[in-house]
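Late entry, written up from scratch paper. The run itself happened at the end of the previous shift, but nothing got recorded in the book at the time, so transcribing now.
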Amino acid sequence: MIGRLGTTRMWAASGAALLCISCQAPLDPAMPAGEAGYAVLAEAQTPAQSTPYTLASGDVIAVRVYQEPELSVEEIALDNGGIVSLPLIGDVAAAGLTATQLSQAIEGAYGARYLRDPRVSVIVKQGRQRTIAVEGEVEQPGVFPFAEGQTLLSALALARSPTDTAQLDQVVVFRDAGERRLAARFDVQAIRAGRAADVALQPGDLVVVGYSRLRGTFQDVVRAIPVFGIFRPY
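Output as recorded:
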């Protein structure tokens, strides 16, 4: 049985805990939000149709040398260094090239020593998996396959929606833009109500949901991201 003194101490401790939660620092106001947030992410938006697909580690390709079946390879994967090894010419750096550019590089290698006027075609048989990640106050955080047309709301649906403790006006999207990482804050309630546009996502985006005052989820994620002091492009 808890005595009067014990009860008093318990309520005092509870009050102190609630006071601590209420004093928890909010998100840095320097983080772009609203229209500014959409503009920040647009800086790193990759046009889906105008940007050609470039090869990277994990892609599976076919290399076909015209009228040279012994030199053709029907299925080969780029290794961890983005290299493919082909008959006679050995290792060829493929990462960062389009299929057409790789075809030209292989033609040059064969033409320099082995074939006269070689013709080579490269076909991407299986592209690497493109993903997005959803962290924080969601029922099922994790990494999910990216699908064309994916948005912030569809990403939350993949993660089985935010938890009851999530703060839906503090949902952050991180996006890499070359050597920088961009971040912007969005209000999911406003998006659901039609007062704000849904956010178009792209492969590699990280969505952090929440900043729960009860569990400090957002702060935990921020501490895990190096050199991240203020919420703006860096």
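The beta strands are 60-65, 73-77, 83-86, 90-93, 120-126, 131-136, 142-145, 171-177, 180-186, 206-209.
(Scratch paper discarded after transcription.)
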